[in-house]
Amino acid sequence: MKALQITELTGPDSALSPVDIPEPEASHMLTPGSGVVVDVVAAGVSFPEVLQTRGEYQFKPDLPFVPGAEVAGTVRSAPEGSRLAPGDRVAAMAMLGGFAEVAVAPDFLAFPLNDKLDFAQGAGLILNYHTAYFCLRLRGRLAEGETVLVHGAAGGVGTASIQVAKGLGAASVIAVVSSDEKEHVAREAGADEVVRSDGAWKDEVKAFGGADVIIDPVGGDRFTDSLRSLKEEGRLVVVGFTGGSIPEVKVNRLLLNNTEVVGAGWGAYVMAKQKVNREIGEALEPMIDSGVVKPLIGARFPLDRAAEALKLIDGRGATGKVVLDVAPQT
Ligand SMILES: NC(=O)c1ccc[n+]([C@@H]2O[C@H](COP(=O)([O-])OP(=O)(O)OC[C@H]3O[C@@H](n4cnc5c(N)ncnc54)[C@H](OP(=O)(O)O)[C@@H]3O)[C@@H](O)[C@H]2O)c1
Q1: Ligand 1 centre from 27 Cα, in Å?
Q2: Can you tell me which atom of ligand 1 is nearest the CA of 241?
Q3: Whole-number pLDDT of residue 295
Protein backbone atom coordinates (compact mmCIF):
# COMPACT_ATOMS: atom_id res chain seq x y z
CA MET A 1 0.00 0.00 0.00
CA LYS A 2 0.97 3.63 -0.38
CA ALA A 3 1.90 5.40 2.85
CA LEU A 4 4.03 8.19 4.28
CA GLN A 5 6.67 7.47 6.87
CA ILE A 6 8.56 9.77 9.18
CA THR A 7 12.11 8.72 8.38
CA GLU A 8 14.07 11.50 10.12
CA LEU A 9 13.22 14.07 12.78
CA THR A 10 13.90 17.14 10.65
CA GLY A 11 10.53 18.91 10.82
CA PRO A 12 7.46 19.13 8.57
CA ASP A 13 9.42 20.14 5.43
CA SER A 14 11.55 17.04 5.09
CA ALA A 15 10.67 14.39 7.70
CA LEU A 16 8.10 12.54 5.56
CA SER A 17 8.97 10.04 2.81
CA PRO A 18 6.52 8.29 0.46
CA VAL A 19 6.81 4.50 0.73
CA ASP A 20 5.23 1.33 -0.56
CA ILE A 21 4.86 -1.04 2.39
CA PRO A 22 2.83 -4.15 3.29
CA GLU A 23 -0.69 -3.57 4.58
CA PRO A 24 -1.03 -3.82 8.38
CA GLU A 25 -2.50 -6.90 10.04
CA ALA A 26 -5.70 -6.82 12.09
CA SER A 27 -3.85 -6.06 15.31
CA HIS A 28 -3.42 -2.75 17.15
CA MET A 29 -0.73 -1.93 19.74
CA LEU A 30 -3.48 -1.15 22.32
CA THR A 31 -5.36 -4.38 21.58
CA PRO A 32 -2.70 -6.88 20.39
CA GLY A 33 -4.19 -9.55 18.13
CA SER A 34 -7.33 -7.50 17.50
CA GLY A 35 -8.26 -4.36 15.57
CA VAL A 36 -10.60 -2.78 13.08
CA VAL A 37 -8.97 -2.65 9.63
CA VAL A 38 -10.00 0.46 7.69
CA ASP A 39 -9.71 1.28 3.99
CA VAL A 40 -8.79 4.93 4.52
CA VAL A 41 -10.60 7.62 2.54
CA ALA A 42 -9.50 10.65 4.58
CA ALA A 43 -6.88 11.17 7.29
CA GLY A 44 -6.95 13.99 9.84
CA VAL A 45 -3.85 16.10 10.45
CA SER A 46 -3.20 17.70 13.84
CA PHE A 47 -0.60 19.33 16.04
CA PRO A 48 0.83 16.03 17.36
CA GLU A 49 1.89 15.01 13.83
CA VAL A 50 3.75 18.31 13.46
CA LEU A 51 5.51 17.66 16.77
CA GLN A 52 6.27 14.06 15.74
CA THR A 53 8.21 15.27 12.70
CA ARG A 54 10.62 16.89 15.16
CA GLY A 55 10.57 14.11 17.77
CA GLU A 56 8.91 16.56 20.17
CA TYR A 57 5.69 14.68 20.89
CA GLN A 58 5.44 12.71 24.15
CA PHE A 59 4.84 9.46 22.22
CA LYS A 60 8.06 8.70 20.31
CA PRO A 61 7.86 5.54 18.14
CA ASP A 62 11.06 4.09 16.67
CA LEU A 63 11.91 5.38 13.17
CA PRO A 64 10.68 4.89 10.55
CA PHE A 65 6.95 4.97 11.32
CA VAL A 66 3.70 5.96 9.61
CA PRO A 67 2.11 8.90 11.47
CA GLY A 68 -1.59 9.77 11.36
CA ALA A 69 -3.76 9.57 14.45
CA GLU A 70 -7.24 9.53 12.96
CA VAL A 71 -8.96 8.34 9.83
CA ALA A 72 -12.32 7.86 8.20
CA GLY A 73 -13.12 5.23 5.61
CA THR A 74 -14.81 1.87 5.24
CA VAL A 75 -14.38 -1.14 7.47
CA ARG A 76 -12.50 -3.97 5.79
CA SER A 77 -12.66 -6.25 8.82
CA ALA A 78 -13.74 -5.95 12.45
CA PRO A 79 -13.06 -8.22 15.43
CA GLU A 80 -15.71 -10.59 16.73
CA GLY A 81 -18.24 -8.82 18.94
CA SER A 82 -17.67 -5.46 17.27
CA ARG A 83 -20.71 -3.34 16.39
CA LEU A 84 -18.93 -2.66 13.08
CA ALA A 85 -19.07 -4.90 10.01
CA PRO A 86 -17.18 -4.96 6.70
CA GLY A 87 -18.38 -2.17 4.42
CA ASP A 88 -19.54 0.14 7.24
CA ARG A 89 -18.53 3.79 7.14
CA VAL A 90 -16.30 4.44 10.12
CA ALA A 91 -14.42 7.18 11.99
CA ALA A 92 -11.47 5.71 13.84
CA MET A 93 -8.60 6.71 16.09
CA ALA A 94 -5.60 4.72 14.90
CA MET A 95 -3.07 6.72 17.01
CA LEU A 96 -0.46 5.98 14.32
CA GLY A 97 -0.57 4.68 10.76
CA GLY A 98 -3.31 6.95 9.39
CA PHE A 99 -1.24 8.50 6.58
CA ALA A 100 -1.74 5.32 4.53
CA GLU A 101 -4.26 3.53 2.35
CA VAL A 102 -5.03 1.00 5.10
CA ALA A 103 -4.96 1.63 8.86
CA VAL A 104 -5.88 -0.25 12.03
CA ALA A 105 -7.70 1.07 15.10
CA PRO A 106 -8.74 -0.56 18.36
CA ASP A 107 -12.42 -1.50 18.31
CA PHE A 108 -13.18 0.79 21.26
CA LEU A 109 -11.89 3.79 19.29
CA ALA A 110 -13.79 3.04 16.07
CA PHE A 111 -17.23 4.58 15.66
CA PRO A 112 -19.93 4.15 13.00
CA LEU A 113 -19.81 7.32 10.89
CA ASN A 114 -23.12 9.20 10.98
CA ASP A 115 -24.69 9.60 7.50
CA LYS A 116 -24.83 13.36 8.03
CA LEU A 117 -21.03 13.54 7.83
CA ASP A 118 -18.74 12.90 4.88
CA PHE A 119 -15.40 11.11 5.21
CA ALA A 120 -13.39 14.34 5.58
CA GLN A 121 -15.64 15.36 8.46
CA GLY A 122 -15.30 11.87 9.90
CA ALA A 123 -11.51 12.30 9.88
CA GLY A 124 -12.00 15.46 11.97
CA LEU A 125 -14.39 14.02 14.49
CA ILE A 126 -12.76 11.95 17.19
CA LEU A 127 -9.69 13.85 18.37
CA ASN A 128 -11.34 17.28 18.39
CA TYR A 129 -14.93 16.50 19.29
CA HIS A 130 -14.27 13.81 21.88
CA THR A 131 -11.70 16.14 23.41
CA ALA A 132 -14.18 19.02 23.35
CA TYR A 133 -16.87 16.94 25.09
CA PHE A 134 -14.37 15.57 27.59
CA CYS A 135 -13.07 19.07 28.40
CA LEU A 136 -16.42 20.84 28.55
CA ARG A 137 -18.61 18.25 30.21
CA LEU A 138 -16.49 15.72 32.05
CA ARG A 139 -13.70 18.05 33.21
CA GLY A 140 -15.30 21.52 32.98
CA ARG A 141 -18.71 20.32 34.27
CA LEU A 142 -20.50 22.62 31.85
CA ALA A 143 -24.19 23.01 32.75
CA GLU A 144 -27.02 24.29 30.56
CA GLY A 145 -27.31 28.05 30.53
CA GLU A 146 -23.65 28.72 31.35
CA THR A 147 -21.26 30.90 29.34
CA VAL A 148 -18.20 29.37 27.67
CA LEU A 149 -15.07 31.11 26.40
CA VAL A 150 -12.90 29.29 23.84
CA HIS A 151 -9.30 30.25 23.03
CA GLY A 152 -7.81 29.29 19.65
CA ALA A 153 -11.45 29.22 18.61
CA ALA A 154 -10.93 28.87 14.85
CA GLY A 155 -8.68 25.83 15.29
CA GLY A 156 -9.62 22.17 15.41
CA VAL A 157 -10.24 21.87 19.15
CA GLY A 158 -11.61 25.43 19.16
CA THR A 159 -14.31 24.99 16.50
CA ALA A 160 -15.28 21.65 18.06
CA SER A 161 -15.55 23.24 21.50
CA ILE A 162 -17.83 25.99 20.19
CA GLN A 163 -20.18 23.43 18.66
CA VAL A 164 -20.18 20.96 21.54
CA ALA A 165 -20.75 23.81 24.03
CA LYS A 166 -23.83 24.82 22.04
CA GLY A 167 -24.92 21.19 21.89
CA LEU A 168 -24.61 20.95 25.69
CA GLY A 169 -26.90 23.96 26.08
CA ALA A 170 -24.43 26.78 26.77
CA ALA A 171 -26.27 30.10 26.82
CA SER A 172 -23.43 31.87 25.06
CA VAL A 173 -20.06 30.97 23.52
CA ILE A 174 -17.36 33.63 23.27
CA ALA A 175 -14.52 32.94 20.82
CA VAL A 176 -10.99 34.38 21.08
CA VAL A 177 -9.14 34.58 17.74
CA SER A 178 -6.24 36.43 16.15
CA SER A 179 -7.48 37.54 12.71
CA ASP A 180 -10.49 38.51 10.58
CA GLU A 181 -10.38 35.20 8.74
CA LYS A 182 -10.39 33.29 12.03
CA GLU A 183 -13.24 35.47 13.31
CA HIS A 184 -15.25 34.38 10.27
CA VAL A 185 -14.48 30.71 10.98
CA ALA A 186 -15.42 31.01 14.66
CA ARG A 187 -18.75 32.58 13.71
CA GLU A 188 -19.37 29.87 11.14
CA ALA A 189 -18.74 27.32 13.90
CA GLY A 190 -21.48 28.96 15.94
CA ALA A 191 -19.78 31.47 18.28
CA ASP A 192 -22.16 34.10 19.69
CA GLU A 193 -19.43 36.66 20.38
CA VAL A 194 -15.92 36.97 18.98
CA VAL A 195 -13.07 38.92 20.61
CA ARG A 196 -9.52 39.43 19.37
CA SER A 197 -6.51 38.02 21.19
CA ASP A 198 -4.48 41.16 20.40
CA GLY A 199 -7.22 43.47 21.75
CA ALA A 200 -8.70 44.20 25.18
CA TRP A 201 -10.44 40.82 25.15
CA LYS A 202 -10.47 40.38 28.93
CA ASP A 203 -12.41 43.65 29.41
CA GLU A 204 -14.79 42.73 26.60
CA VAL A 205 -15.44 39.33 28.18
CA LYS A 206 -16.04 40.98 31.55
CA ALA A 207 -18.50 43.34 29.86
CA PHE A 208 -20.35 40.24 28.61
CA GLY A 209 -20.55 39.09 32.26
CA GLY A 210 -17.53 36.74 32.33
CA ALA A 211 -17.26 33.02 31.61
CA ASP A 212 -18.28 29.95 33.61
CA VAL A 213 -16.00 27.63 31.64
CA ILE A 214 -12.89 28.55 29.64
CA ILE A 215 -11.39 26.08 27.16
CA ASP A 216 -7.70 26.88 26.70
CA PRO A 217 -5.67 25.01 24.06
CA VAL A 218 -3.28 27.99 23.75
CA GLY A 219 -1.76 28.73 27.19
CA GLY A 220 1.08 31.25 27.22
CA ASP A 221 0.78 34.76 28.58
CA ARG A 222 -3.00 35.09 28.24
CA PHE A 223 -3.55 32.66 31.10
CA THR A 224 -3.74 35.24 33.90
CA ASP A 225 -6.28 37.29 31.95
CA SER A 226 -8.28 34.10 31.46
CA LEU A 227 -8.41 33.62 35.24
CA ARG A 228 -9.57 37.21 35.57
CA SER A 229 -12.34 36.55 33.02
CA LEU A 230 -13.93 33.75 35.07
CA LYS A 231 -17.15 34.23 36.98
CA GLU A 232 -17.31 33.07 40.59
CA GLU A 233 -17.01 29.24 40.65
CA GLY A 234 -15.74 29.37 37.06
CA ARG A 235 -13.49 26.61 35.65
CA LEU A 236 -10.48 27.19 33.41
CA VAL A 237 -9.77 23.96 31.52
CA VAL A 238 -6.13 23.45 30.46
CA VAL A 239 -6.10 21.70 27.07
CA GLY A 240 -2.84 22.59 25.32
CA PHE A 241 -0.03 25.05 24.75
CA THR A 242 0.00 26.11 21.12
CA GLY A 243 1.09 29.57 22.32
CA GLY A 244 4.44 28.01 23.21
CA SER A 245 4.89 28.57 26.93
CA ILE A 246 3.37 26.70 29.85
CA PRO A 247 1.70 29.22 32.17
CA GLU A 248 2.07 29.28 35.96
CA VAL A 249 -0.78 30.01 38.35
CA LYS A 250 -0.63 32.24 41.42
CA VAL A 251 -3.06 30.17 43.43
CA ASN A 252 -4.16 33.10 45.58
CA ARG A 253 -6.21 34.20 42.55
CA LEU A 254 -8.18 30.97 42.78
CA LEU A 255 -8.85 31.51 46.46
CA LEU A 256 -9.84 35.17 46.07
CA ASN A 257 -12.35 34.55 43.27
CA ASN A 258 -13.45 31.00 44.10
CA THR A 259 -12.35 29.62 40.74
CA GLU A 260 -10.66 26.43 39.52
CA VAL A 261 -7.95 25.43 37.08
CA VAL A 262 -8.70 21.95 35.72
CA GLY A 263 -6.36 19.76 33.66
CA ALA A 264 -7.84 17.86 30.72
CA GLY A 265 -5.81 15.17 28.96
CA TRP A 266 -8.29 13.26 26.81
CA GLY A 267 -5.93 10.63 25.43
CA ALA A 268 -4.45 9.52 28.74
CA TYR A 269 -7.90 9.40 30.34
CA VAL A 270 -9.85 7.45 27.74
CA MET A 271 -7.25 4.96 26.51
CA ALA A 272 -7.89 2.66 29.45
CA LYS A 273 -11.58 3.45 29.78
CA GLN A 274 -13.36 1.84 26.85
CA LYS A 275 -16.80 2.61 28.31
CA VAL A 276 -16.10 6.34 28.44
CA ASN A 277 -15.23 6.38 24.72
CA ARG A 278 -18.52 4.71 23.93
CA GLU A 279 -20.42 7.19 26.14
CA ILE A 280 -18.75 10.22 24.53
CA GLY A 281 -19.47 8.86 21.05
CA GLU A 282 -23.11 8.29 22.00
CA ALA A 283 -23.45 11.76 23.55
CA LEU A 284 -22.22 13.37 20.32
CA GLU A 285 -24.64 11.47 18.03
CA PRO A 286 -27.76 13.59 18.77
CA MET A 287 -25.63 16.71 18.30
CA ILE A 288 -24.59 15.43 14.86
CA ASP A 289 -28.19 14.50 14.04
CA SER A 290 -29.42 17.98 14.96
CA GLY A 291 -26.63 19.61 12.94
CA VAL A 292 -25.06 21.51 15.87
CA VAL A 293 -21.95 19.32 15.55
CA LYS A 294 -20.61 19.51 12.01
CA PRO A 295 -16.80 19.45 11.69
CA LEU A 296 -15.50 22.43 9.72
CA ILE A 297 -12.96 21.30 7.17
CA GLY A 298 -10.25 23.84 6.43
CA ALA A 299 -7.50 22.91 3.99
CA ARG A 300 -7.43 19.57 2.14
CA PHE A 301 -4.41 18.00 0.48
CA PRO A 302 -3.74 14.73 -1.32
CA LEU A 303 -1.65 12.24 0.68
CA ASP A 304 1.56 13.03 -1.20
CA ARG A 305 1.29 16.71 -0.17
CA ALA A 306 1.03 16.02 3.57
CA ALA A 307 4.08 18.20 4.24
CA GLU A 308 2.05 21.24 3.17
CA ALA A 309 -0.68 20.28 5.64
CA LEU A 310 1.84 20.02 8.46
CA LYS A 311 3.44 23.35 7.54
CA LEU A 312 0.06 25.08 7.53
CA ILE A 313 -0.60 23.96 11.11
CA ASP A 314 2.97 24.76 12.14
CA GLY A 315 2.66 28.29 10.74
CA ARG A 316 -0.59 29.03 12.65
CA GLY A 317 -2.46 29.13 9.33
CA ALA A 318 -4.90 26.27 9.89
CA THR A 319 -8.60 26.80 10.43
CA GLY A 320 -11.00 24.03 11.35
CA LYS A 321 -9.66 20.57 10.55
CA VAL A 322 -6.85 19.93 8.08
CA VAL A 323 -7.46 16.74 6.11
CA LEU A 324 -5.56 14.48 3.68
CA ASP A 325 -7.62 12.93 0.89
CA VAL A 326 -6.21 9.41 0.66
CA ALA A 327 -8.78 7.79 -1.67
CA PRO A 328 -11.68 9.20 -3.68
CA GLN A 329 -14.91 9.70 -1.67
CA THR A 330 -17.61 7.38 -2.97
N1 LIG B 1 -5.63 17.92 26.15
C2 LIG B 1 -6.06 17.14 25.20
O3 LIG B 1 -6.65 16.11 25.48
C4 LIG B 1 -5.87 17.54 23.77
C5 LIG B 1 -6.53 16.88 22.75
C6 LIG B 1 -6.38 17.36 21.42
C7 LIG B 1 -5.51 18.41 21.18
N8 LIG B 1 -4.85 18.99 22.21
C9 LIG B 1 -3.94 20.13 22.02
O10 LIG B 1 -4.74 21.28 21.77
C11 LIG B 1 -3.93 22.21 21.04
C12 LIG B 1 -4.74 22.77 19.86
O13 LIG B 1 -4.92 21.77 18.88
P14 LIG B 1 -5.69 22.12 17.54
O15 LIG B 1 -5.76 20.86 16.76
O16 LIG B 1 -6.93 22.87 17.86
O17 LIG B 1 -4.66 23.11 16.83
P18 LIG B 1 -4.96 24.20 15.67
O19 LIG B 1 -6.13 23.78 14.87
O20 LIG B 1 -3.66 24.46 15.01
O21 LIG B 1 -5.42 25.49 16.51
C22 LIG B 1 -4.62 26.04 17.51
C23 LIG B 1 -4.92 27.51 17.69
O24 LIG B 1 -3.98 28.01 18.64
C25 LIG B 1 -3.81 29.39 18.42
N26 LIG B 1 -2.42 29.80 18.59
C27 LIG B 1 -2.01 30.76 19.42
N28 LIG B 1 -0.69 30.91 19.35
C29 LIG B 1 -0.24 30.03 18.44
C30 LIG B 1 1.03 29.73 17.92
N31 LIG B 1 2.13 30.36 18.35
N32 LIG B 1 1.13 28.76 16.97
C33 LIG B 1 0.04 28.09 16.55
N34 LIG B 1 -1.21 28.35 17.02
C35 LIG B 1 -1.34 29.31 17.95
C36 LIG B 1 -4.27 29.68 16.99
O37 LIG B 1 -5.38 30.54 17.09
P38 LIG B 1 -5.21 32.11 16.97
O39 LIG B 1 -4.29 32.37 15.81
O40 LIG B 1 -6.60 32.57 16.74
O41 LIG B 1 -4.64 32.54 18.30
C42 LIG B 1 -4.73 28.33 16.45
O43 LIG B 1 -5.94 28.46 15.71
C44 LIG B 1 -2.65 21.47 20.63
O45 LIG B 1 -1.64 21.83 21.55
C46 LIG B 1 -3.03 20.03 20.82
O47 LIG B 1 -1.90 19.22 21.08
C48 LIG B 1 -5.01 18.58 23.48
Answers
A1: 31
A2: 45
A3: 97
